[in-house]
Amino acid sequence: MESDRARFGRDGRMSSPLRILMTPAAARQAGAGLAEALGGRAHVVVNPGDDADVAFVSRDVTGLSTKHQVLPHTQQFHDALRNAPSLRWVHAHSSGADRPVYGELRARGVEVTTSSGANAGVVVQTALAGVLMLARSFPQLLAAQREKTWAPLVGSGLPRDPAGQTAVIVGWGPIGQGLGTLLSALGLRVIAVRSSAGADSVRFEDIHTVLPRADWLLLACPLTDRTRGLVDAAALALLPPGARLVNVSRGEVVDEPALIDALRRGALSGAYLDVFAHEPLPPDSPLWDMPHVIVTPHTAGHSDGNEARVAALFLDNLKRWNEGQPLLNRVA
Length: 332
Description:
By secondary structure, this protein is an alpha/beta fold. The chain has 12 helices and 12 strands.
């Protein structure tokens, strides 16, 4: 790989500057870190339309685009990636790499890395907030507030204590583990569903064995061939009465029509959903108006500290790439 990562002359010196495709805002954020990561190697920041050796897809590239609705400025950058013949490595600001452009790049041999873990703490906090809001009947209380109605929970059924309940967490990366730690501290029993089985965990393919015990089904897994459609109608039917679902992974992990049906029938008592099968969520989706559903616009991981954490990950990987070392968060 080292021969792919640097262009050397006969004397062992780099024969030309490393070309890095990144936005001006990302370059300012990286600052002197670029030169430090490259150990003095000459480099130049190039613009979309120029050839590049490496690229950094920062948050400002994606903006308000989704993988289903790509806005013009995002499309321009994605096209620049596609049309850079010398491109060897791309680092993405996101924790996943399921946008079509990354699959296309990998198919032609470009290494792709993600910023998995950079926003994990923020996503954990948001998912926990969703759990607590559902557990404490906040959708019901907020609806009463909007109607200026005094409606104590004593009159509508008291919420269950979280302690003693069981949380099944699908995905055991930084988000799943962080969420498991906090839920355990609240007295819940945690079962993990992950790529391989272990103590208190089962494989993705064996999720059906633990769903009947799940008071809470929390989705924090990447979107892969093994997780796409994992929570289908049959899986939802295995959940016990009163179960609730939290999804901060990807919308395609869940069969959305089956989820809507389960919520309508009361087979599920509620859901916090940050991701959807199609984003933006269409205005005519029934999920918007369901009384025990909390909808947020794929924003569980957003915070003002993410930009610096993502930049640090990119610079760490840039140093590794320049030195021929294995990259962190490489998409296999």
